[in-house]
Specification:
Strand content: under 5%
Distance between the termini: 13 Å
Number of strands: 0
Order of helices and strands: HHHHHHHHHHHHH
Shape: globular
Largest sheet: none
Helix content: over 70%
Number of domains: 1
Length: about 300
């Protein structure tokens, strides 16, 4: 499995997960994001024990503590992203959030001294511009639609308003997590150790969230009602497996590329969630896909 095929695996799986996250998010449930944390943590915990079995249980559990700065960044950014899905369409939330890959790639270029050739630089630039443009176009459409209907523009659609702050925060925190992850994978631990450490930490967070919801808030969990969140968790966990192996190569290219999973989210949002796309958005989707093709061609 090359870094490119691993990255494509993450893109597809995380894109599908994003669509299920949105489908399973209840805007009227203030704890919806914590319910997602419980399901994702459970799925990742199962995957972690499977990995430990494959490793013959040869794992230093102190790695959980060692890897904690990375895990905290990832889990915090994901939780913020889940909250954002209560207020924004996935067509806006996902592209803006996933500019984090470009930020992480830039940090790897400037701080870690990782390099890319001219074609790869062009491809990464195309991907970054495309992702930002898709979110901006969708936001403008929402404003125009509300104006036509004679309704005051909801603050959640305005750049800088509270709702858009969620994907922006996600992008910044996730980028820092990806950068730290790159450092760890380069110098401190193997992809398998990093994967298990992260997933066990997420499991602990899921246990804490479940105790809070079920014990303190008396919130009931019915598996039938959690089916979309469960599916999101399964795809999220599978994507994480491919992600660590892809990142353990040249993160200056891989991080922006994997951020393209938002394109899958946008397309699925259009098909299954009936979110509208314009010709401009289709153009930028094509631009991003061309960037992915260029990265693969020069792999």
């Amino acid at each position: 499995m090359t870094w490119y095929t691993a990255a494509i695996g993450s893109i597809l799986l995380w894109g599908i997960a994003d669509a299920f996250y949105k489908k399973g998010t209840d805007p009227n449930d203030r704890y919806s994001h914590l319910r997602i944390v419980v399901m994702v943590g459970l799925a990742m915990g199962i995957q972690a024990f499977f990995e430990l079995y494959k490793m013959g249980w040869q794992y230093d559990f102190f790695n959980i503590v060692k890897y904690l700065p990375v895990s905290i960044m990832y889990i915090l950014s994901m939780t913020i992203g889940y909250v954002g899905l209560r207020y924004l369409e996935v067509s806006i939330n996902s592209p803006v959030s996933n500019t984090s890959g470009a930020v992480a790639g830039l940090l790897a270029f400037l701080v870690l001294g990782k390099r890319m050739n001219g074609w790869q630089l062009l491809a990464v630039s195309m991907i970054t511009v495309g992702l930002v443009a898709i979110g901006v176009v969708q936001r403008n459409l929402a404003e125009e639609e509300q104006k036509k209907q004679g309704v005051a523009i909801d603050r959640k659609y305005k750049l800088g308003a509270l709702a858009l702050a969620f994907p922006i925060l996600y992008a910044v925190i996730d980028a820092l997590g990806t950068f730290l992850d790159d450092v760890y994978l380069t110098k401190l631990m193997s992809p398998e150790e990093a994967l298990v450490s992260y997933e066990l930490t997420f499991l602990l967070c899921a246990v804490a969230a479940f105790i809070y919801l079920a014990g303190f808030k008396k919130s009931k969990f019915k598996l039938y009602n959690e089916r979309d969140r469960i599916l999101a968790a399964i795809f999220e966990t599978a994507g994480q497996y491919f992600y660590v192996f892809a990142l353990d190569t040249n993160s200056v290219i891989v991080a922006p590329m994997i951020g393209c999973y938002s394109i899958v989210s946008v397309i699925l949002g259009r098909i299954f969630l009936k979110e509208q796309l314009t010709k401009a958005q289709y153009f930028f989707i094509a631009l991003v896909m061309l960037g992915i093709f260029i990265l693969g061609f020069f792999e």
